Amino acid sequence: MLRLVAWGRPALPRIVLGGLTALGASLLALAVPQVLRAVVNGPLLTSGSRTGVVEAAGLVLLLGALEAFLVWCRRALILTPGTNVELAMRRDLFRRLLDLPVEFHDRWSGGQLLSRSMSDLSTVRRWMVFGLVMLCVSATTVVVGVGLMIATAPVLGLVYLAGAVPMVWLGFRFRRDYRVVARRARDQAGDLATTVEESVHGIRVLKAFGRGEDALGDFVRQADALRATEVAKARTQSRVTFALGAIPEAVLAVSLAIGVVLAARGDVSVGALVAFFATAAIVNAPVERLGQLLAMTLDARAATERFVQVIDTVPAVQDPDEPARLSAPPGGGSLVELADVRFAHPGRGRDAGTEILTGIDLRLEPGTTTALVGLTGSGKTTLLQLVPRLYDVTAGAVRVDGVDVRDLTRAELRAAVSVAFEDPILFSASVRENVLMGAPDDLPPEQAEALLQRSLDVARAGFARDLPDGLDTVIGEEGLSLSGGQRQRVALARAIAVRPRVLLLDDPLSALDVTTEAEVTRRLREELAGTTTLVVAHRPSTVALADRVAVLEDGRITAVGAHADLLATHAHYRYVLTALELEDTERAALEAERRDRAAERREDEESEVVEVADETADEKLEVRR
Ligand SMILES: Nc1ncnc2c1ncn2[C@@H]1O[C@H](COP(=O)(O)OP(=O)(O)OP(=O)(O)O)[C@@H](O)[C@H]1O
Question: A single Gene Ontology molecular function, please (predicted)?
Answer without folding.
Answer: ATP binding
